[in-house]
Amino acid sequence: MADVLDLQGIRKSYPSGAGEIDVLHGIDLRLQRGEFAALIGPSGSGKSTLLNLIGLLDRPSAGRLCIDGDETSTLPEAAITRLRGQRIGFVFQHHLLISAFTALENVMMPLLVDRGRPDAAMRARATELLAGVGLADRAEHPASKLSGGQQQRVAIARALAMRPALVLADEPTGNLDTHTADDIFALLREVNRREGTSFLIVTHDPRLAARCDRIIELVDGRIVSDRPNPAD
Ligand SMILES: Nc1ncnc2c1ncn2[C@@H]1O[C@H](COP(=O)(O)OP(=O)(O)OP(=O)(O)O)[C@@H](O)[C@H]1O
């Protein structure tokens, strides 16, 4: 089976004044199915830039980027959008829920975008996902009336709606108190073990990184270390 992620020689430059600034200098990285990896590094090292490329939200300046066996550099925009929607889930520091929608409606959103109109199967899937994140009794609550931790649980359920091969999480617990952060992290881990979903998690929190299977460290746009984490 293909790796869920296979990057070779990924470079990214941004225009700057008359020239360009190089942010990623040739990233080689593979992630296997079911891996639970942390991406760490100082501020400005290129973590978000790399996550945006892997999430197909932006295009590399050079290099090969394969998601779940599909090479993306030659794909047209419509195919990129489809690939992103179907294979990748996103969890951000700020949950980005639609506050007037219920928890259930928020979880249904990716399914609606993919299939066009709501149906019973979609509701059933969203209900099952909410139960999986411990919110079966909050399905009909507007997102705005949920606590920060509950909102992040809804965001995780939403990220899983399409059964993605890979979930990209950018500081998923950055906005939460320590206790809630631990709960949310445990939930990500549980999903990883239960569903076999791969995770790549950007975090500044060494405590959380220490609980991942693998720690990838970026400094100045280069991977300076990539190690399994035997402590976990
Ligand atoms: N759109 C852009 N245009 C120009 N430069 C950019 C752009 N986006 C990012 N950069 C630069 O790329 C570098 C890496 O930024 P990036 O946000 O990827 O770092 P990061 O490791 O995620 O940082 P943080 O931990 O603070 O979020 C920084 O020097 C930043 O200024």
Automatic annotation (TrEMBL):
Which SUPFAM superfamilies does the record associate with it? P-loop containing nucleoside triphosphate hydrolases
Family matches, as SMART domains = AAA
User: Has the keyword Translocase been applied to this entry?
Assistant: no
Keywords, A to Z, come to:
Antibiotic resistance, ATP-binding, Cell membrane, Lipoprotein, Membrane, Nucleotide-binding, Transmembrane, Transmembrane helix, Transport
GO cellular component term, pick one: plasma membrane
Q: Name one GO biological process term.
A: protein localization to outer membrane
Keyword Signal listed? The answer is: no
Q: What Pfam families does the annotation carry?
A: ABC_tran
Q: Where is the ABC transporter domain?
A: 5-231
An example of a GO molecular function for this protein is: transmembrane transporter activity
The record's family statement is:
Belongs to the ABC transporter superfamily. Macrolide exporter (TC 3.A.1.122) family.
What protein is this chain from?
A: Lipoprotein-releasing system ATP-binding protein
Give the species this sequence originates from.
Azonexus fungiphilus
